[in-house]
Task: inverse folding
RNA sequence: CGGGACGUAGCUCAGCCCGGUAGAGCACCUGGUUUGGGACCAGGACGUCGCAGGUUCAAAUCCUGUCGUCCCGACCA
């Protein structure tokens, strides 16, 4: 391609609405443009990168034995109702109506459709295993689109769904995808690593996310430096808090004491009360499917809402508002407690974090504004309905596996693999006859990669102060030719000749044939980030030379006769490193 | 949805407090000079100041509403 004949709208300054560097470079390098919040048009250069990422994904999915299909983006709500997700996922579902007022769902993912296909087409164990994938546009009514392509209302996702005859077989399918993902991100030049993950609204019981470390990432990953443990903070566990919990009883029964104006854990830990946060019980009220629930964690712990969601088994839950809290507990936030004898309504279920089991000598709210209770022994004074791990792990806590302190870092989630089990196959009736003639539900897995997000994650990880530094495998063009003279000059003539030869050799080459000054071309070249630049200038041409300049590497003069062969060798070598 | 910031030329922004002529740099068009790290000179084109009301002799500027964008939180590839 000749630069003068395509559209690469580079920008000297970052647009005001781009906050993070990858979003800025996405726009500055002319890869895409915003139509409106969360919706982007891919310009020619950006589309080339997108296609390259897709192709890597396609090759690795095919290699892993998955079959490419294409499902409708417009889906009937009935199948969403059958899976139950018409309700549980309703906040992210875009809906549209047709002329007869019938409602349709714009696909945010495709478990329902693929399981419908499996239900009608898979009948025998002899057909299994099967794994279907597609690369297509997905729609999600995101609460807040953010950071360009990172979180958009419409994005491109590769989604795959495996069907197996048993749990063990499903595990093997899962493993294949896990390995394929590892290869995919490596080929894209990304340093991504798998972490244990929460399963969220999709459901299922086993899951990993592939994370790209980045300060701008929306996730927090807890990891042990031994490499033996890494998990999303929503899922992460540890050997427990560094400060132990009190286990010695301080009195025969809870004792009420006045705490006027004290409504925070912190205030109660100060003089004159001096109750350490670790010796307090934090009482939180949530509304789950319309009903209040009480949630208890240690005073110095943070509730992990993802963990709570998993235990509540509710389709929807949220923090209670003050009026709801007063109605349920008889006191305002700051004086709440779960001590059974002080409860206004003892029918409300109590969920408590495991750390509170057998905690003694604790302090908590008295359900009376301005009063707390001391000498609370949890096992004696509080009726707990559900014990569970509900706390958020903190930095330096010890890993269960290794006993070593763990760290926390931010990361971008680019892929997610789930073992789904039979949740969807049962609801949408995908079953098969086993060897012994028994009808069984297929055991499913599902596997997603955010293609557009991966593209931006590459930029987030591969850039310097001057612009993008594309890995050869996903670069929009592999080689950029920059003749420095004007049209008709000797340098431009040689540029044209190299362009012809490299194109014929199958190299993706972009010729900067614009009538611009050298400095201008170099700035654009660095910004756009083509991995290998070949410059043809008057001075070097006089010596019979051209210059090879890998993006981010050192300039090298070579004989012009050797240019084509050297460029091809360089491209092949770079691709080989990423294969 | 809660909290915050911002909407002025294609882009980045000034002007707004303190009401009175709509500005700069970059980009764009024409001509000329330039040509190894975002050139220079001369000329030109580009705006219902997000939108709608209101106050006023007069509104980019003050008031009210509304729409949009971005950031922080809940959601996720």
Result:
């Amino acid at each position: 391609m000749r630069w003068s004949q395509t559209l690469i709208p580079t920008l000297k300054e970052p647009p005001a609405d781009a906050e993070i560097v990858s979003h800025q470079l996405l726009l500055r390098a002319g890869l895409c443009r915003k139509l409106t919040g969360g919706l982007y048009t891919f310009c020619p250069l950006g589309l080339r990168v997108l296609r390259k990422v897709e192709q890597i994904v396609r090759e690795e999915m095919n290699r892993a034995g998955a079959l490419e299909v294409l499902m409708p983006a417009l889906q009937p709500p009935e199948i969403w109702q059958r899976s139950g997700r018409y309700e549980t996922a309703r906040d992210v579902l875009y809906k549209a109506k047709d002329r007869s007022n019938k409602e349709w769902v714009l696909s945010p993912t495709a478990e329902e459709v693929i399981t419908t296909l499996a239900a009608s087409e898979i009948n025998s164990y002899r057909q299994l295993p099967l794994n279907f994938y597609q690369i297509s546009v997905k729609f999600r009514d995101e609460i807040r689109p953010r950071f360009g392509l990172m979180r958009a209302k419409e994005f491109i996702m590769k989604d795959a769904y495996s069907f197996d005859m048993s749990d063990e077989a499903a595990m093997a399918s899962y493993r294949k995808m896990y390995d394929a993902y590892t290869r995919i991100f490596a080929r894209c030049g990304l340093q991504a690593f798998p972490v244990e993950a929460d399963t969220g609204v999709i459901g299922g019981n086993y899951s990993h996310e592939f994370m790209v470390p980045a300060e701008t990432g929306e996730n927090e990953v807890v990891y042990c430096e031994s490499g033996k443990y890494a998990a999303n903070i929503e899922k992460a566990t540890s050997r427990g808090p560094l400060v132990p919990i009190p286990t010695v009883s301080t009195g025969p029964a809870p004792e009420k004491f006045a705490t006027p104006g004290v409504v925070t854990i912190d205030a109660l830990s100060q003089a004159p009360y001096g109750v350490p946060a670790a010796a307090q019980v934090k009482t939180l009220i949530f509304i789950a499917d319309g009903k209040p629930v009480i949630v208890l964690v240690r005073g110095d712990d943070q509730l992990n809402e993802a963990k709570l969601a998993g235990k509540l088994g509710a389709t929807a839950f949220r923090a209670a508002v003050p009026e709801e809290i007063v109605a349920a507990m008889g006191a305002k936030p700051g004086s709440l407690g779960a001590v059974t004898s002080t409860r206004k309504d003892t029918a409300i279920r109590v969920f408590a974090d495991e750390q509170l089991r057998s905690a003694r000598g604790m302090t908590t709210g008295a359900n009376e504004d301005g009063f707390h209770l001391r000498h609370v022994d949890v096992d004696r004074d509080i009726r707990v309905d559900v014990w569970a791990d509900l706390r958020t792990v903190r930095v330096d806590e010890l890993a269960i596996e290794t006993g070593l302190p763990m760290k926390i870092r931010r990361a971008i989630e680019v892929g997610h693999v789930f073992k789904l089990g039979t949740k969807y196959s049962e609801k949408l009736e995908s079953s098969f006859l086993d060897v012994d003639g028994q009808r069984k539900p297929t055991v499913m897995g599902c596997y997603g990669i955010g293609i557009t997000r991966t593209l931006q994650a590459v930029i987030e990880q591969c850039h310097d102060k001057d612009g993008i530094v594309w890995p050869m495998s996903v670069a929009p063009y592999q080689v950029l030719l920059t003749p420095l003279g004007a049209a008709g000059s000797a340098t431009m003539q040689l540029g044209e000749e190299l362009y012809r030869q490299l194109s014929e050799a199958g190299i993706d080459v972009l010729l900067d044939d614009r009538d611009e000054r050298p400095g201008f071309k170099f700035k654009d070249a660095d910004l756009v980030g083509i991995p290998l630049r070949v410059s043809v200038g008057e001075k070097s041409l006089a010596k019979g030379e051209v210059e090879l300049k890998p993006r981010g590497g050192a300039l090298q003069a070579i004989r012009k006769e050797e240019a084509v062969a050297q460029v091809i060798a360089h491209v092949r070598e770079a691709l080989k490193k990423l294969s």
